[in-house]
Fold these 2 entries.
Entry 1:
Amino acid sequence: MHPVVRLEEIYKTYSNGEVQVHAVRGVSLDIHKGEFVAIMGSSGSGKSTLMNVLGCLDRPTRGRYLLDGVDTSHLERNERADLRNQKLGFVFQGFNLLARTTALENVELPMLYSPKRVPASEMRKRALAALKIVGLEERADHLPNQLSGGQQQRVAIARALVNQPQILLADEPTGNLDSKTSVEVMGVFQRLNDQGITIVMVTHELDIAHYCKRNLIVRDGKVVRDEFVTNRSISEVEMQKVRDAEMAAKLTHSS
Amino acid sequence: MRSILTALGIIIGVGAVIATVSIGNGAKHQVEGQIANLGQNVITVFPGTTTTGGMRGGFGSSSTLTIEDAEAIEREVIGVVAVSAEVRDRQQVLANGLNWNTTVMGESPGYLSVRAWDIDSGAMFTDADVRSTAKVAVIGQTVARELYPDMDPVGQTIRIRNLPFKILGVLKSKGFSFFGSDQDDVVIVPTTSAMRRVARRQFLSSILIQAQAPEAMARIQQDVTDLLQQRRGGREPDFTVRNQLELAEAATATSKTMTALLGSIAGVSLIVGGIGIMNIMLVSVTERTREIGIRLAIGAHDRDVRLQFLIEAMILSMLGGVLGVLFGVGASQIVAAQTGMPVLISTTSITGAVIFSAFVGIVFGFYPAHKAAQLDPIDALRFE
Ligand SMILES: Nc1ncnc2c1ncn2[C@@H]1O[C@H](COP(=O)(O)OP(=O)(O)O)[C@@H](O)[C@H]1O
Ligand SMILES: [Mg+2]
């Protein structure tokens, strides 16, 4: 079986006039089906650049990127749009939902741009199913500003899932969330991963990376460490701990 | 609200188009009506000559058209239905203890046929009346109203230059001519009576000739010219033969230039409106850069984004178009009410204006939409 993602000597250089920034410098990497990878590293180390290449939002300056066994390096703009639509699901730090558009309509959006036309009833059915996976089917008619940050991020995850992608990519998905909500969102990811969905996410928080199965450390555009997580955190267990702590706090308060 | 302000250019442009076209059409319709009102297939002979370079001597400067000329035309030119030898004079007339200043016209009995005019009550005078220089008259509605406010004028006597004329009939109303004069303010008497008893002139003001068919007009015009020339021997021509189509052409040409002028003003304001649309769409594209980024990131193609913004621009300008139509219709109604100018609002001009404003939206929305479609998804997503 070929890996879902294969990076071969990927380089990305930004050139703003005279100055050249080498954001990614020779990354080679295989990610197989069912993996749950966290990319870690300090700010400016090239994590987002790498994610954008993985997400076909950006093209590498050099190197080959095979997605699901297909070389993406020579695809043109609209072909890459189709890949993003069909094979990739992207979750952003800032949620990036359309305002003035309900949760359901936000989740339906990728199907609107599917190369094959999806009938409206089918769109609705699949969007509701995706919202159900993230536990928000009752909030389908809510607008983004009527939802909490964690809920908005779950809508964004549902949107990323709705076209059944090969891989779910998330650039600092918990970056704008408090720790409890972060655990919730990681719980969603863990459940999806348990169902066999491949996930790659960026984080700079060690405890968040601990929910994943494999951690990559990036420094100056290179992968400097690649290790499997032993003894990883399980969101249900952590949530229970949080609830217990809250309970204890309440009890001490009231007594 | 901002959309409405933006669409203001379109609103005014379309409004102006609708108003000008409506007023222009109304005027054209009126002119056409008045030209038909002159009578059908009419050729007029004026005394005096004109050259293409302008008037020479001026109309009537050598008044030499005679009643015999008119008779000769009626007798000798083929395809002539009716001829009227006309003499015009302005007189104070008295009747029923009232007096009124009006146009007294000497005409032949064929005059009514030439002018496509009818008698309302009573009868027209006859050839016998012309031959006998009879003191008889038919009067227009305005004269009838002014002199006989509550009496049937037929059979009454009207005094012109202190001579009693018996009223034989009253004409139907004909309204205003396109020169703006009241055509019903008239007393018509036999040509001979007018020449000898009223105007005291030897020569005619004009000869009106009605042709059988429009196709015959050019030939009749030529025949009349030849005949009158022949009757004058070797003398220099002292008359001008004009047909009604030439008058109609002059009138429609004027209204066409008016419409073209107003139309081009309206066109310019539509272009200004289009630039307004372009401006708001550019602002909208900038404001919604992030949204565009999101759409591109989840797989929208260039054309999806372009189409979205084109449709928005089109809807915006069509909205402006519809409001403009309402505004234009309103404006032309006000003009109609204030000035009494006729206004003709046509569905073609309304649908045309709305379609054209949609077209303006597409043309001027194209650049902003293209700009949106060409955005880089990452740059767009990073945009604040
Ligand atoms: N569009 C760009 N143009 C120029 N330099 C860029 C651009 N995007 C990122 N960089 C630079 O590339 C390096 C890596 O950035 P990034 O991948 O965003 O890092 P991280 O996500 O790990 O913080 C940084 O030095 C950043 O300044
Ligand atoms: Mg980053």
Note: The pocket of adenosine-5'-diphosphate (ligand 1) is lined by residues A 14, 16, 21, 23, 41, 43-49 (CB under 6 Å).
Entry 2:
Amino acid sequence: MVELNAKIPAGDIAEKWDNYKSDMKLVNPNNKRKFKVIVVGSGLAGASAAATLAELGYQVDVFTFHDSPRRAHSIAAQGGINAAKNYHGDGDSVHRLFYDTIKGGDFRAREGNVHRLAQVSVNIIDQMVAQGVPFAREYGGLLDNRSFGGAQVSRTFYARGQTGQQLLLGAYQQLARQIGLGNVRLFNRTELVDTVVIDGRCAGIVVRDLITGEIASHAAHATVLCTGGYGNVFFLSTNAMQCNVTAAWRAHRQGAAFANPCYTQIHPTCIPQADDTQSKLTLMSESLRNDGRVWVPKNADETRSADQIPEEDRDYYLERLYPSFGNLAPRDISSRAAKRAVDSGRGVGPLKNGVYLDFSAAINRLGKGVVQERYGNLFEMYERIAGENPYDVPMRIYPATHYTMGGLWVDYELMTTVPGLYAAGEANFSDHGANRLGASALMQGLADGYFVLPYTIGNYLAPMLNKSTPGVDHPEFKAAETGARARYQQYLDIKGTRSPDWFHRELGKIIWDYCGMERTEQGLEKALSELPPLYEEFQKDLRVTGDGASTNQTLEKAGRVDDFFQLGMLMCKDALERNESCGGHFRAEYQDEEGEAQRDDENFAHVAAWEWTGDPMNATRHAEELEFETIHLAKRSYK
Amino acid sequence: MSNHLTNLTLKVWRQSGPNDGGHFESYRIDSISDEASFLEMLDVLNEKLIGDGKEAVVFDHDCREGICGTCSLMIDGQAHGPQRGTATCQLHMRKFQSNQEIVIEPWRATAFPIVKDLMVDRSAFDRIVEAGGFITAPTGGAPDANLIPIAKPVADASMDAAECIGCGACVAACPNGAANLFTSAKVAHLNLLPQGQAERWSRVEAMVETMDEHFGSCTNHGECEAACPKSISIDFIAMMHKDYRKAKFKNRRLIAQI
Ligand SMILES: Cc1cc2nc3c(=O)[nH]c(=O)nc-3n(C[C@H](O)[C@H](O)[C@H](O)COP(=O)(O)OP(=O)(O)OC[C@H]3O[C@@H](n4cnc5c(N)ncnc54)[C@H](O)[C@@H]3O)c2cc1C
Ligand code: SF4
Ligand code: FES
């Protein structure tokens, strides 16, 4: 039975982290090298954690399925990273960032963790500048900031439209230095396929070499999963193609509780699907909504091109429905409004699956030059993908899955319900509640990796000094290896008729239709009745060509889709049990007259943490009550 | 609006492993939407191959947004294909025509051994970074970020270099298989910044020498810049050479003032 003890330190909210640090156990510098720590993942969370742990003196092994740590999905983040620096004297503070994050998360995150995040946010910017991240500067040479949704202050630091790239390169360089010094061993193109728990502690992992197909075990005193989010369960998302849930899911099956799987974020401005071959969706920065106007034709049978449709036949629905926020309505609200417009048959584009984001008014008002200066690179990117020039024709956009707030349940120390197994970055559930604010994921990944884990891991390791831990010859490791070999062999042996991608698309359609932007009891029941037979078909009719003894991307994909199926069932169950609307989880039954989400704080001010029972359809739900001592529960309104 | 290209012939390099000699194999794509990306066209091919019970073509890719640097195809002899400043994953079928034959190969360079089919091993790039492509700033002791003002043009120039995605097209396009554009971009990113000054000379020495261990030498062909999806400028190569020469003088302090 899992026990959910968040281990929030005592004291006033602003003192909890300092209290923790002064009470925690320490490992003497000379003893650190006696401990081995495994870090899986080399994104912002993994690279920063691994580099810092190695600098402290621990022996660190890093695993990534990428060919180089620099390719992790973090590289794709565009917009920026938040920090409560208050460099602009506009009233920002640690408390305000803490408050904005709790409110943005629709009061479904833990106060203690979020406050710590806001506190260490300022150190992240210092650290990254020291690493050589070329953040945008003002003419005086000081750091520039921009503002982002859900905040009334300018606290977002950025590096052109490539903030994630520059931050990841900073953390990667720091990690590379430790690899060069011999303090970190890097296992690239190596995928975690299982975690091993012996005597109630995580003893290490089982991995598959993606070039030779070999299965091998690695033992360590502690293991950290920084393996990213699971947005690709939808098949189409803005995530990189290889993002998957396998590491987190395999840990879940070994006893780590999975929290709030139904909390997913749908981003309103992505380029709509063009045809059936579409493999992923591309995000267009949210900043476009500052000057673009969103509209659809008033009539479903409209056939004219955009420039031929007169004003009176256009519906600027965001401006009509949300007059005070207009085109800048929050992510979830704009996304749902777009869905309704398209569902009513008024979608635009050849597949009628998008809405217009129109810059003609901005071009008339500001001139083409100004628009080009502000958005030139985005317009170019759009044209490259969609083949249309947004200066002449309105852009077409549609919401897409972007981020997953749910993930492995962790306590204040970022430890999962399995002692010795930690989760950091997007892989854990901790800080964003039911909805993440823009520019806060990069902040969280780096906070976890640089400033939280390196402390909390010591507290766990200190008492283990000079005690023996199981090695890779332990029968549990051998059993896990045998299981993993059998699993991959099984995919090859089915010899059915359908590829892993085919099943992934079908799975994604169900999740998107019933567990996407808008959920209903009926829809979720339907999904839960359709998923098990499809999964059974997967197990009977899968076809993986090639063999298991050399690079085989079809085989890799089969394993990932298998785990996505199981996660998909849990997501739908979680969404069905949460009888309220909050943040990214919108249940159509729970909304007010204006279509705003209606929370149920009496019954659902808790984290739902699911325990593996052998079948995701019968997982056990546990609740961690959330206590709001500092911030009063209030309706999340941006009016 | 969506049109279809018909009757494409793909000549694809197949190689079962590093020790196999490899060969071209021809495949037909009967019809593909011009909205599809080049890699989506390969997805379609792979689905077809799996349908026929054959092994799918292995190729590297991930973000499909032109930023991770994973995709790496020689298309008709051009690294990343015909569209300038565009990574393979951002290339769309509207740049091709019906009835065309398209030759698809992996990066070819001694330093990038072929893993399988179109996938190569680019870890030699990581070795260059490990040798010196960093600033030594262990977590914790960093001063307040605004204590180091950086002139905007300097930050911008550093960023121009830092945009490199580490794809290796520069190496693949170079007749000598040199990695000067990649290495110089990393050197410039850090050597231009005030934070990078302390290790400026040791960095350029270590990185250039590690580069020379793995890659061919630069003879100023300029093919790298033309192939680079981020249009990284070869001016950075000149900067790197200058810094390297200075680093080699014994009395660096004096020479750095010139
Ligand atoms: C298009 C886009 C734009 C975004 N823009 C922003 C933004 O502007 N601001 C912001 O704050 N956030 C943004 N985000 C969100 C943010 O980028 C991510 O949440 C964050 O980077 C995740 O970092 P991570 O370190 O947790 O995981 P990742 O960067 O996803 O890294 C995961 C790592 O784990 C490894 N891995 C995973 N599974 C395994 C396994 N089984 N075995 C071995 N290795 C494994 C991978 O190889 C990889 O190294 C954006 C996201 C997207 C999709
Ligand atoms: S310099 Fe250009 S071509 Fe070379 S690795 Fe960097 S981005 Fe790729
Ligand atoms: S797949 Fe990432 S750059 Fe092409």
Note: The mean pLDDT of chain B is 95.
